[in-house]
Amino acid sequence: MSISIDPDAVSSLHRYKMPRKLGFGRVLAPVMFRAICQDGCWSRGELVPYTAISLDPAAKVLHYAQSCFEGMKAYRTPDDGVALFRPEKNAARMTYSAKRLCMSPVPEPLFLDGVRTIASYCANLVPGNSGESLYLRPFLMGTQADLTVSTSASYAFYVIASPSEAYHSGNMRLWVERDDTRAVVGGTGDAKVGGNYAASLLSTGRLRERGYDQSLWLNPANRSSVDELSGMNFFAVIGDALYTPALNGSILQGITRDSLIELARDQGHLVVEGEIHINELLKQVDSGVCPEAFACGTAAIISPISVIGDAGSSYRLSKAPGSVAQSLRQALLDIQEGRTEDRYGWMQPLEAIRSS
Predict the structure, then answer these.
(1) CA 266 to CA 340: how far, in whole Å?
(2) How far apart are CA 185 and CA 203, in angstroms?
(3) In terms of DSSP H, where are the helices of 101-193?
(4) What are 191-245's pLDDT values in tens digits?
(5) Distances from the Cα of 25 to the Cαs of 29, 160, 161, 194, 314, in angstroms?
(6) Burial class (CB in 10 A: 0-12, 13-18, 19+), 32
(7) Quick check: 194 and 67 in contact, CB under 8 A?
(8) Cβ-count burial of 159 within 10 angstroms (0-12 exposed, 13-18 middle, 19+ buried)?
């Protein structure tokens, strides 16, 4: 399927000036990719100028939350090229999320056309410093306008982009969330849908008043074992092994998580996917049996954890960042930024279409 390129989109790229300070997700590229689905039939994708989206006030997405999204990155390579990291994994996960919400999935070729088109045309906007990237946000929403509690017959798929620094720099302070639940087994916990993130905001507001950065969510079935953070997966070095909660239906299948498990095993680490009981973990942190822990995700890559707060007590990790987190972060970045051989086949180089 060919892509339609709006001449005004190309003109907007020519006029665009990159700000010196990027932050994360705050600077938006001046173009976006769009495709429309009606009764299961998808239109041709098009690159258009970035602009506000017009929605009918009765659109399903506004009332019944038929919406899912992905987060992924395009990286600058040493030869001044651009490459995507495991985009087929994002395509597959969006399909899973869409089906969970009874939405028409974006065909994988259309999804990949969208992210490749945006990354190629925005090649000049991919930052060159290590740890920076062009963050891509594909999203899908139901647009049919009526108030019946039913699936939409029409959908809109977009890809927008943001030249960005790392999501969270420095160490992270976690608060154990023992009262609220973000997602449940049988719900949408293992899908990347907006409602999961909305459910985390009340907890986030409370913990920030206490001086913490992120919630550490517990499994809703037992309230005793660790699941994940609001938008990141969790790892802990306990004794001689690297532990991470097993995928259980309420944890998102993180692409960075999957990549780090493979890298860690290749580095010789014993990786254990299983239950991490929070009370036992806090004792292990306090005794030094667990000297380091970290969170991971597309946006942040790896964020070392320095403190875990719980019920008025603070448990400090003795190594933040620790050697395992540092080694894995560097190994992953070396692949993503093209400094080492990609023997996993994770990177997809793109033909950059220069905007100027």
Answers:
(1) 15
(2) 19
(3) 108-121
(4) 999 999 999 999 999 999 999 999 999 999 999 999 999 999 999 999 999 999 9
(5) 10, 10, 8, 16, 31
(6) buried
(7) yes
(8) buried
From CA 130, how far away is CA 43, in angstroms rounded? 37
Task: Please enumerate in sequence order all residues whose Cβ is within 8 A of that of 127, keeping only pairs 6 or more positions apart, or say none.
Answer: 22, 76, 133, 134, 163, 164, 165
Residue 169 in this model has a pLDDT that exceeds 80: no
* Pairing between β-strand 72-76 and β-strand 241-245 as defined by DSSP bridges: unpaired
Exposure b/e, 115-128, CB count within 10 A at least 16 = b = bbbbbbbbbbbbbe
Judge contact between 279 and 226, C-beta under 8 A: no
Distance CA 172, CA 153 (A): 42
Torsional class of 241: left (φ above 0), alpha (ψ -120 to 50), beta (otherwise): beta
Give the pair of three-digit tokens for residue 1.
């399927």
Encoding tokens for residue 28? 């938006």
The torsion angles phi and psi of 256, rounded to 5 degrees, stand at -65, -40
Nearest of 119, 109, 35, 34 to residue 76 by alpha carbon? 119
Integer Cα distance of 200 and 122 in angstroms: 32
CA atoms within 13 A on the CB side of 328: 32
Nearest Cα residue to 227 out of 205, 210, 203: 203
Tokens of 239: 């004794």
The DSSP secondary-structure symbol of 145 reads B
Cα(261)–Cα(273) distance, integer angstroms: 9
Q: Encode pLDDT of 56-108 as tens digits.
A: 999 999 999 999 999 999 999 999 999 999 999 999 999 999 999 999 999 99
Residue 289's contacts (CB-CB under 8 Å, 6 or more residues apart) are 238, 239, 283
Q: What's the average model confidence in pLDDT over 286-307?
A: 96
Question: Quick check: helix, strand or coil at residue 56?
Answer: coil
**Residue 356: pLDDT band by 50, 70, 90 thresholds?**
very low
Rounded to 10 degrees, the C-alpha dihedral 102/45/196/167 comes to: 160
Which of 33, 28, 4 lies closest to 16, judged by CA?
28
Beta carbons of 260 and 34 less than 8 angstroms apart: no
